[in-house]
């Protein structure tokens, strides 16, 4: 089995050594030993860190991600939770597309004042309704 020094893991994953230590301390990844003061990891740490990064990008907390890792090194990705998160991302994409379109309109609107532009005023009303959560 290939053993990776914490510096090697950091280099391969782009994750800071301090973050790797933290992930080890909270049980997201597990060091297999030490060489001096430097932690050593098995090769599975690289794909585990990739899954952690993906989970974080998807909006999962570290606690939620930790719940997906099993003690035996396998991963349990709860499909209903993943579908729910994908649905939430779809909603965020729609909202961001509306925001993008609004910004483009404001940047290109020929009205002398943005408040004189009927489309801009409509966008403000829509944004105001969405802001009420």
From TrEMBL:
Residues 1-71 form the HTH merR-type domain. CDD domains: HTH_MerR-like_sg6. InterPro entries: DNA-bd_dom_put_sf, MerR-type_HTH_dom, MerR_fam. Pfam families: MerR_1. Keywords: DNA-binding. PROSITE patterns: HTH_MERR_1, HTH_MERR_2. This is Helix-turn-helix domain-containing protein. It comes from Neoaquamicrobium sediminum.
């Amino acid at each position: 089995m290939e053993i990776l020094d914490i510096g090697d893991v950091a280099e391969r994953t782009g994750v800071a050594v301090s973050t790797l230590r933290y992930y080890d301390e909270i049980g997201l990844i597990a060091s297999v030993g030490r060489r001096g003061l430097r932690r050593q990891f098995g090769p599975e740490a690289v794909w585990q860190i990739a899954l952690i990064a993906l989970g974080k990008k998807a909006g999962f907390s570290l606690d939620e991600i930790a719940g997906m890792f099993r003690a035996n090194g396998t991963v349990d990705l709860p499909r209903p939770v993943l579908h729910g998160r994908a649905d939430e991302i779809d909603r965020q994409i729609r909202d961001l597309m509306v925001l993008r379109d609004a910004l483009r309109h404001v940047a290109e609107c020929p009205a002398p004042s943005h408040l004189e532009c009927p489309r801009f005023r409509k966008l403000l009303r829509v944004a105001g309704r969405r802001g009420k959560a």
